[in-house]
Structures are given as structure tokens and as C-alpha cells.
User: Fold this.
Amino acid sequence: MAIFNAPFWTFVGVIAGIYTILSLGLFLQYAMAGLPNFGHVAFMALAAYTMAFLVIRFGAPMPVAILAGLTAAVLFSLLLGLPSLRLRADYLAIVTVAGGEVVRYLALNLQDITGGAIGSIGMLGPSRLAQYNTGWDAMLAGFSRVLRPLFGALASRDFAMLLIVWAIALVLLGLCWVMVRSPWGRVLRSIREDENAAAAVGKNVFGYKLQVLVLGAILGGAAGLLLAYEIGVFSPDDYQPTFTFYAYLILILGGMTRLWAIPLGAILFGLLYAGTRFLDFYPLSLIDSGARAFLRLWAVGLLLIVLMAIRPQGLLGNRRELLLGR
Amino acid sequence: MSALLQVDGISRRFGGIRAVDGAAFDVEAGSITGLIGPNGAGKTTAFNVISGFLRPQSGTITFDGNRIERQPAHMIARAGLVRTFQIPRVLTRMSVLENVQLAATRQPGEVLGAALIAPRAVSRREREVRDEAMQILDLVRLSRLANDYAGTLSGGQRKLLELARALMTGPRMILLDEPMAGVAPTLALQLLEHILERRARRGTTFLVIEHDMEAIMAISDRVIVMDEGRVIAIGSAADVQQDERVIEAYLGRREAQPA
Assistant:
């Protein structure tokens, strides 16, 4: 593949935007309120499956399906949070890891509903191909026609998607920025630092934790819906636990407690992850492509280790804050 | 004067240990009351129970006429009864100023989304909160460090910051758990002055656990003595010092001592 490949880099840009939204959810939960959510990917999966199921089986209109998808993610966050948020943070970590895997295995095994291992395309059974994104694609096609006078040949379907994803991401970043800088954000950070101290000055710790858990679920769900629309077909394999850790990686790369570092971290991660595809020159070209794919992941890991060694606080992070962490 | 806090027969066991075992006492409104007793007497557990961090297994607690023994900690704090911790719980990766601002009451901006819907009201209150917080930091001589991370403070400064945070809530009553332990003598003296001044100006009630007997005897109107989870004596500083049971609790039983 040529390195100057517009569709490929547009795809990388879209994915980086989706990762930004996903990581923003974790930012609120973990970087602000200190809630370790290791099953963030479950919110993506639930929103995507709910949306696709309603469209494919019941012909639900797109806005209804989107809302239902987000609602499913919220309900799941309540299911995980209500019993575990009153306990120590460790319990939420365990519950979310398990919750994430439960969702993936359910998707894999409830074949009649989810299409099983083949994924969304099998939601109508093996004989008919199921599609959930005709509404979204029509919207994209319309939008790219509007963009054509402005951008000419550049205004492809992918380009329209890129603009939409990043517009959503920037709006969400902006809203969250205002909120985390407000007294509400101050309470979240106090819970991260010491929830007993927060309770001792009258803050309803449980209530705040529940709020960020739900907000994070909405953001995770939104990322899941956008990813589903971007890739067109999804299966349980798309919701491996590693997905959650990529989102953490983005927070760490950017600088844990810095909100505007999230898009930067997401772009850097996208470049590292996708850019290493182009490591196919001599002598690497001597290795077959399968082995090169593994080598690539290895290279990504090495790069991350080097980055962390040089700059443990991330791109925009604050080193003093890191050193003060208990 | 009337009782602001009434503790009646509270008990709290941990496994087989009765940390608090039917303790009962009243604290008069506007008073400074000392809570003393040897190590393991149940003083801190009593604080944890009163402030809602632990549920009592029996007994009742009445604050300002309302039963609070089943209320969660944050509701008790909002009712005007706040506490500090023996080992100060400062928010290390937040600034000293933020530590105090956090404790502000009536900040509408603490509601989810309020900063988006009513930014004016939030920032108006925030300016007041900031001024108030700076005044309180001035009082405890920490204003110079307002923008430093609280994690950089010394142990004694952390004690002062905790006091500042408690004062910021505008409480009717403060439970102080060893406010002077680990604080430099000059600072400790200032701390005592703050307590006396706050009581004089606002009528704030204090219940203070302290091992520094001289200090506690100097500022307390009354002293409650606990031993083995029970209250064994209540009275003026002079009275409890003469009390047989108190002397026994601290020094051991007379017959057990070598002649």
C-alpha cells in the first residue's frame, strides 16, 4: 500500500475521532473521578448491537435506534454501578472487567439475536444478509453532496464521516471541558483523591460516581455507534478487552488529567498503530506479511515503552502531579 | 445552654472487640468540649460513629433535635456537623485553595451540567467561594501556599488545611481528631487561638480529641473521659483530673501498682 493513500488516512482519522470520544468517557470516569472501568468496550458493544438489532429486526428509524443504543449502554452502566459503587474502587474494576466479557460472550452465543460469531450481518439468519447502516449511509451521501461545492473531489463519503465524527468529538470535548472546570469537576477530583474527605464536607460521593459512570457509558455508547456505522459490519471480535486498554493508552499518551490531550493522544495512537503498516521496506520486506503484522504490534509496544520512559507524564501531562500520586 | 449533640448509649463492635460500648454524653451548644482517654478508649471510633462514617450497632445520636445515627456521612456534614481526621485527608493532587473551595456550601455549580445551563450563577458564587476560601487560608496562615499542590504540605500544614476545610463548610459544630498532634508548637498555639476565636465570633461548638493535656485543659469548658468504650467521667478540667476512675484509666489500678 502506498503511504499517500487518502482513503486509508481518512479512515485512520475517523478511528482517531471515535477513540477520542471513547477515551473521553474514561477520562471522566477514571482521570477525574478515579473510577477504574476496565470494561468500557461493553458500552460500545451494547449500543451497537441494540441499534443494529432494532433496525434489522424491527425496521426502527435511525434516531430511535441510536437513542435505544445509548439507553442500553446507560442501563448496563447502572447494572454494573449500583451494586459496586458503594464499595472500594477495586470492586468496580472487577465488575467492569467481567461485565465487558459477559457482553462479548453473550453476543457470541445468543446467535438468534446477535448473529453469533459472524456478527451483525447474520442477524437475519444464514440465508439473508442483514444491514443496519442504510439510513446512516444515505445521510452521509447527502452530506457529501453538500460538501462537494466546498471541497470538490475531496468530498467523499469517508470525508463526510471524518467531519461528522470530529464535529461530534469536538462538541463533546468542549462540553466536558466546561463541566470538569466547574465546581462539579472539582467534586469529581476530590472523590478521586479521597472519597472520605469529600463525604466529610458534605458531597454525595455515590451520586457523583453514578453520574460519571452514566456519562461515560453514553460517551462509550456513542463511540460504539459511530464505529458500527464506520465499519458497516461488526462481530463480537471487534469488542475484545484490548479495545478498552487502547482507550487507556490514549489517556496515558496524552497526559492523564489533561482533557485536550485526548484528541492528541488519539491521533498519536492512530498514527503509531496505522503508520507501522508502512514498515514494509527492506529488510523488513523479506519477512512475509503475516509475520510482519505481529512484528508491527511488537513495534507499537516498543514505541510506547520508549515514549513512557522519555515522557512518563504523556504529551501534555504534568510531571509534578504524577509524582504526587499516591 | 442546651445540648446541641446528644449521644445516647452508642455501641460499635469490631469482631469481638467493643470499640465503643454504650457511650453516652451531651455537648452543649457553643461549648468547647474535650474528649480524652487512653489509647484504644474508643474516641476515634466514637467520632466515626457520630459523623456517619460508621453505623452504631445500638444507641441514638441527636444533633440539633434531629436523629442522625442512620444518616450517611455527607448528610450529617450538610446538617452542620463536620469532622476532621486524625491522619489528615488532604486532596494531594489538588491545590491548597481547591481543597478549601471544595468545602463551600450552596455552590449551584456542583450540580451536573449547571456550568452549561447557568454559567453566570455558578461563577458569581465561585467568586464568593474563592474570597471566602482565601480568608480562611489567611486565618490558618496558608494563603501563601494557596496555589501549591496540597501534596507538598508538611504534616502540620495538612492539619491546618483540614481545619480550614472544616471551617469553610460554615458548620455549627466541628469534631477535631487530634488537631495538634504533629503540629509545631507555635502553630499549635495558633490553632487553639483559632478555635477560641471561632467560638467567640460565631458560637461554633467544638468537640476535640487531644492527647496534649495541657492544651485540652486550657481550652475546654468540659472534658469527657472515655475508657474501654465507655464514658467514665464528665466534668470540668479540674474535676476530671481529680477523679479516681480517670487516674486509674491512665495509670492503672492502685492495687496493681507496686507499693
Q: What stands out?
A: Chain B is about 40% helix and 25% strand. The beta strands of chain B are 3-14, 17-28, 32-36, 58-63, 66-67, 81-83, 173-177, 205-209, 222-227, 230-235.
